[in-house]
Amino acid sequence: MGQAQTGINQDKQGFWSVDRIYKSTRLRNRFKSFEEAESWLIYQLEQLRQLHLFGIRPKRTFDEAAAKYLLDHQEKVSINLDIYLLERLMPFIGKLTLDRIHDGTLAAYVKDRKVNKLANKTINLGLELVRRILNLAARSWRDEDGITWLETPPLISVLPLIGFQREPRPITWTEQRRILPLLPDHLAKMVLFDLNTGARDEVVCGLKWEWEIAIPELGVSVFDIPRENVKGRKRGRVLVCNTVAQSIIEAQRGRHAEFVFPFRGHRVETMNNTAWQRARRIAGIPDLHIHDLRHTVGMRLREAGVREETIADILWHARQGMTAHYSVVQIDELVEALNRINNEGNRVNRSLAMIRREQLDGKSHPKVTIERKMG
After folding, report:
1. Do 324 and 226 share a structural domain?
2. Distances (CA, A) of 25 to 28, 31, 151, 297, 358
3. Quick one: CA dihedral 360, 167, 241, 311, positive or negative?
4. What is the tens place of the pLDDT at every residue in 294-317?
5. What is the distance between the alpha carbons of residues 287 and 356, in angstroms, rounded to a whole number?
């Protein structure tokens, strides 16, 4: 089929793909109709001609900027979150040129996210990503003539957090005993491991045997987590096991050559899956988040009288004086601290908030029928 513009072809799925090079600049895109593809290519070619003739900045769309951002940040730890956020943004601003993106054109996106009952903090993640991309377009990204993609970045407003932010919700021991039997076996082990180490969801899911370091004199293992698998990627961290976590590790040996917590031979992507959501609903704690397990560990360590510096080391909170290389004696201190939370017998400093929650929970919690799924 002859085309008015070279570089436009129909692919096997029936879409019209543009792939054209003009003066060393490659133009690529995909459209549902030939007319859309041709119109886009003509516009882009004219922009490039104007640029080469007069030095005029070509107008680029947000989907072009998003594609460049993802290519430039492929190694980012949270790149999957960025992809998720951009997929939600594209229907609202993907086809807009960068100079047309501002609070007004983002209003429909914000409204849609609120209709879907997302928290302000979650909506802000998308807005902050837009702001980041526009700042890069205006300050860092330049074409072959040295012209930035955007002249001036707009001021993108974010939603207020005070009064809208969800407070951490550590779980009580009673709630723990209620929810664990409702989880599939593999997920129950992951949750219990989390409640005894304070590790993040992505660390538990991606935990590898090759990171394990056995410490015979302490009778436990630690996991030397590489920097690439730690939030922020600033440095590697050490994940310490108490006796409960260690018993789970021993039970997992031999199940998979690479991952400690596999499911059906593959890595678990997240503990926040349908099985978790179903269990928390049946247990009467539908607002419980996976990250609350980490908050629970911090609370229980404080209730057990553990020093704040030790808690920071266990939870990988940045602090001055934090060591980069642990000795066996230092590991022993962390193990001893974590062993104080392997049961509720060491609660010497209960918080008023937890006392109140336990009292309310004792008066009115739903009757739970335990239906354990194995897997």
Report:
1. yes
2. 10, 20, 20, 53, 64
3. negative
4. 999 999 999 999 999 999 999 888
5. 18
| DSSP3 helix / strand / coil % (the chain, rounded to 5) | 50, 10, 40
Whether residue 188 sits in one domain with residue 110: no
Residues of the chain with pLDDT > 90, as a percent, come to: 59
Q: Which amino acid is at 339?
A: N
Tallying the residues shown for the chain, one arrives at 375
Read off φ and ψ for residue 157, nearest 5 degrees.
-80, 150
CATH classification of the domain holding 297: 1.10.443.10
Residue with tokens 């890069």: 136
Residues 6+ apart with CB under 8 A from 333: 310
- Residue 331 identity (one-letter amino acid): I
For residue 238, the enclosing domain spans: 173-363
Identify whether the C-beta of residue 195 lies closer than 8 Å to the C-beta of residue 293: yes
The whole-model pTM stands at: 0.65
Residue 167 has φ and ψ, to the nearest 5°, of -80, 150
Q: Which of 278, 318, 275 is nearest to 189 (CA)?
A: 275
Do 297 and 247 lie in one domain? The reply is yes
Give the number of domains in the chain.
Answer: 2
Q: Tell how strand 262-263 and strand 237-240 pair up.
A: unpaired
Residues 294, 197 contacting (CB under 8 angstroms): no
Looking at the fold, whether 126 and 177 belong to one and the same domain comes out as no
Residue of 199, 320, 192, 206 whose CA lies nearest to 259? 206
Last-in-domain residue among 114, 139, 164? 139
Given this model, what pLDDT does residue 371 score?
52
CA-to-CA distance for 54 and 51, rounded, in angstroms? 5
The answer to whether position 164 is within a domain reads no
Per the CB < 8 A criterion, the answer to whether 185 and 227 are in contact is: no
Residue carrying the six token digits 């129909």: 10
Per DSSP, the residues of 116-128 read TT--HHHHHHHHH
Which residues partner with 29 through β-bridges? 18
